[in-house]
Amino acid sequence: MSCQNPHQRFSVKIGGPKALYRHAFAGLLFAAAVAAQPAAAAGVCFKGINLSGAEYGDRDGVEGKNFIYPSEKTVAYFAGKGMNIVRLPFSWDRLQPTLNSPLSAAEVDRLKAAVQGLRDHGMTVLLDPHAFGYYDKARLGTPDVPAFAFADLWIRLAAEFANEPDVLFGLMNEPYDIPASEWLGMANDAIAGIRSVGARNLVLVPGTRWSGAHSWRVESPGGSNAEIMRGVKDPIDNYAYEFHQYLDADSSGTAAGCVAAEAANAALVDVTAWLRETGKKGFLGEFGGSQDAACLAGLKAMTRTLDDNADAWLGFSYWAAGDWWSPEEINNVQPTAKGERKQLSALPLTPGKQPDAKACSTLPPA
User: Fold this and answer.
1) Which structural domain, as residue segments, surrounds residue 294?
2) What average pLDDT does range 165-187 have in this prediction?
3) C-alpha to C-alpha distances, 119 to 27, 76, 216, 239, nearest whole angstrom
4) Is 366 domain-assigned?
5) Is 286 designated active site?
6) H or E segment at 170?
7) Domain for residue 257, yes or no?
8) Exactly one of 107, 182, 286, 329 is catalytic; which is it?
9) Max CA pair span of the chain
10) Who contacts 301 (Cβ-Cβ below 8 Å, separation ≥6)?
11) What is the mean pLDDT of residues 129-134?
């Protein structure tokens, strides 16, 4: 979701419908092997939501006017629905107003208060710099935003939340126009920075091209995510891969219909096979759909695929909800005056009972 406009996603994603269906077909070839794997009875460890709002506005925005962190009421609502993780988008520009400089004390305090509020309701928190590989409208890896600035961000941020087992580090939301070979180096440097301050937290590593499951194997200049991202290096080997996947024709999450629901699920089957090849786990950081019947069926199928292959998946966070989300936003599951949104019924949740997050180890021994 674009941090510039909370009610729109980028309308085009690399690969498009043709690539989506081509890789959906390829994914189906792996279906038999994936289905043959033993399913974990309890399903995935993490089932949750993106609570959008803190990524809104620019670096000089005013809380409550230009951006907002999740309210206690909203957090309690989703915890009560049986969710146990919140992917928490925030603004890199506002957290670190000047590159390679100290973080904003005021924004760190807001972020920590939000994390504590989520903890109070039994939530694990996935920190999400929601920046698409950009800072102040300049792409990461350019002279205006050199690659080492990204590692600097994570050195400073990791020090604030080091070794808190219920805080996970999502490196970056949807870097989309950085070659995979270039992005890998940035990701590895950020991980090295995190470990340099003694933080052992679980790190979630996205690919480039919006982290799409459907485009994971697509060959592009700089290589495919499937090939290049095998090169992730972590001194303590405590990382997983983050994927995003929507159900509309171009996998942007902007259309009300879900004509590619089956292909989206096939893409998850495909990357499940890839995760097993690499011996790593995945997390579905964004997925969503409207209240259309095809979308609801697709959401059920996708989350069932994750639960049935919990040896390869940590969990999911649905996109999205938030205190300022409009009822007209198609993927919105924030409760409205008319009551609960239908999409919640399509997710494998048990109201009043949160999954056991401790079933997945997120903090290895020192």
Assistant:
1) 16-352
2) 98
3) 37, 11, 33, 22
4) no
5) yes
6) strand 167-170
7) yes
8) 286
9) 53
10) 261, 262, 265
11) 98
Give the phi and the psi of residue 127 in degrees, each rounded to 5.
-70, 135
**182 in catalytic set:** no
Cα distance between residue 337 and residue 315, in whole Å? 30
Query: Could you tell me where the beta strands, DSSP code E, fall in 53-147?
Result: 85-90, 124-129, 134-135, 138-139
| CATH code: domain of residue 277 | 3.20.20.80
What are the E-state strand segments in 182-254? 203-206, 239-244
pTM: 0.90
Residue in 174, 182, 242, 329 annotated catalytic: 174
Residue 109: inside a domain: yes
Q: Are 110 and 142 in contact (CB under 8 A)?
A: no
Q: What is the dihedral of CA 298, 300, 304, 305, to 10 degrees?
A: 10
Asked whether residue 358 is assigned to any structural domain, the reply reads no
287: phi then psi, degrees, rounded to nearest 5? -165, 160
**Number of independent structural domains in the chain:** 1
Please, is 259 exposed, middle or buried when counting C-beta atoms within 10 Å of its C-beta (0-12, 13-18, 19+)? middle
In percent, the amount of the chain with pLDDT more than 90 equals 86
